[in-house]
Predict the structure.
Amino acid sequence: MNTRHTHLVKVHDLSIAFPGVRNPDPVPVVKNIEFGIRDGEILGLIGNSGSGKTMTAMAIAGLLPDSARIISGRISFAGENLLTMNRRRRRMMLGSDIGVIFQEPSTALDPLCKVGKSLDEILECHGNKDRADRRAKILAILSMVGFTDPEDIYIRYPHQLSGGQRQRVLIAGAALLSPKLLICDEPTSSLDTVTTVAILALLKDICHRLHMTVLFISHDLSAVRNFCDRVIVMRGGEIVDRDSAEEMLSHPHSGYTAELLTNARLDPRTLGLTRASVDYSSSPILTARHLAARYDNSAKTVLSDINLDIYPHEILGLIGSSGCGKTTLSKTVLGLIPHTGSITCTGGRIGAVFQDPVSCLNPAHSVMWHLKEPLIAARKRMSSRDMKIRIEKALTDVGLGSEYLTRLPSALSGGQRQRVAIAMCLILEPFVIMADEPFSSLDASSASEILKLLPRINREKGTSIVLITHNIHIVRQICPRVIVMDRGSVCEEGLTSEVLQNPQSEALCNLLNAERRLHGDNH
């Protein structure tokens, strides 16, 4: 342990502000906060979206947006003030001294670069000129974060990976140079429970083995409880609570922390959710037979002999570990991936709600533009007045008012962006919605709002929903039927109560065991 400094990082009186929209005076988003991160400690930072967690972490990393202004404070790293440090030296600290795992893997990875190239640049930029050595180190770190075939991952593009696989690539990149401080911004939000448990165990092992200090930002309070030594709670840019992880999350000091814990459970029973009834003696509205798919530059099959039936008015759960093929199956049904086999639809359109609301919205255009685009693409012939009425109805259906039509995505919260994405799907009145991890990138409060919205759409509009999720607890409560996937194939399917009560496959047993380890009795 470094005996000269009891804290690796010390934040003193830090305030961060952004210029106002109509007022030139800066609007504070972080307000006079103070805390320290001890050498070798894992410190959790929790709070709802907009609480200032990520801005605080990015200030430490030196990655604040250009428009942000630090209006007061000091940030010390191993005794040196980061805010007065030479810009080039501070930039070179990224990777070697401070590693960052970003929240949105789809936007953090270059879509034009293969995984190997992206990771290779990290080593090359920090002075490693030996190409063979760089490749060996990259393959070793890919194996360390859980890829069983690192050679295959090395040559893939980000779009050819699942959300969980992309997140593991980011973790590999952040750990490549063994930094002293690892900032983890929602590193497990897109991962299934098995992978979450494995990644948390990996990060904790690296932390202790390499004497690495971790700042862990997360909406998953179960992960925080099991992973962190201490927890800081933020609200509205201020620190409102702090204590050991076990004490804070077992006996919250403030009403706000208690509310976070309640929302984090995402319990459909306490949210009063009801869904449409399903008649399984009726004919399916969508049938797929013997679906198979693979990516162009890979000999590896990602879907193999999949059979799928979706019934009227049902919410069908689709679960499995990251990389098992859930998202690929969804994209195949949507016609986005070449495949063999047959897909038969007896209804109308198939809609999609994608995992990441940030990457599916154009940052340069308003909500109105986003809701017009599906109508234009579908060649809907209607007057401007009728189009406006339909757009406003789609917003109303997802719980947003017409005042949101002029807003850009950057002016929306995570939950509001996801609602806009759902409105884009609903505006064409689909008979089936493929909802791919619609809660994973949201804080607990926003996730509970979306969880209430989807069954309401199912109940009021009779829309069938295929819910792809890592949250088995939600599937258990709102999905009468479930499909379990493993390595590109269906390994179990049937009524949810029967499948989850008597698991027959190793894949499902692993998921259920990981859920118990991560959530304990909370679920």
In short: The chain has a mean pLDDT of 86. The two ends are 38 Å apart (CA to CA).
